[in-house]
Structures are given as structure tokens and as C-alpha cells.
Amino acid sequence: MDIKLKAFKKSVLSLSQLFSLNLQDYESNPVVIDGLKNGIAQKFEYTTELCWKTIKKFLQEKEGIESKSPKQSIKNFFDTGYLTEADYLLLIEILVSRNELSHVYDEETFEKIIGKIAIYLPIFHRVLLILEQNWE
């Protein structure tokens, strides 16, 4: 298994575990909640980066396709039949959210993106499964 795939798998599992924490258990300590949310945001950004870079490497090795950008990597992954259109569109949305999160300066946008991670986690798991099943 490729080293990028191992790192992506570890990151997906770690994000899932972190996101599964019940923040209400820590509501008496806003500093802890803030730290956990920031940790979730950082892990989401990291997982997103590993996702597209692992896809890029997979396409290069398996299909001989060179991708120059995150969006091109996702598009090529879709074009080669590994993704449904719905998953393709969701991965593009994830890239947009990652970019917004990297440059967020307001609490509302931050909270909106953190709230979407529950929607984003399943696609990370699906991409991981696709890569594991098809990488030789």
C-alpha cells in the first residue's frame, strides 16, 4: 500500500474519532470546546489535502494520468469512473470549504464548515475504500 494511502487512511480515521466526540460533554469549558473545534478544522484541512494528493498519486500510478491541481485530480478521478457525479460534486465542495476555512476570519463561516464535516466524512471513507480496492 502506498505511503500516501496509509497516511490518508490514518487521517480519515483520526478525523472520524475526533468528530465523534460529543462537544456537549465539555460545554462547561468553552476553552476545551474551542480547542476541539480548531483541532477538527485542522484535521479536516489535512485530510482534504491528503485526499486529493492520494487521488493524484493513484491516478498517476494506476491510470498514467497527470493532474496539476486539486480540482483537476478530483475531475480526473470522476472521469475515469471511480466516482459518482454526486461524490464528485461533494469533493469539489470539500475543496471549496477547505479553502474558505484556510482563510476564514469570521466565526459564522467557521461554524458553518465545522457543521458540514458530518456530511463530508462519508465521502472520505468512500474514497478510501475505492483506493484500497483498486490500488495494486
TrEMBL record:
InterPro entries: HepT (IPR010235). Keywords: Transferase. Pfam families: NTase_sub_bind. The keyword RNA-binding does not apply. SUPFAM superfamilies: Nucleotidyltransferase substrate binding subunit/domain (SSF81593). It comes from the Bacteria. GO terms for molecular function: transferase activity. This is Nucleotidyltransferase substrate binding protein, HI0074 family.
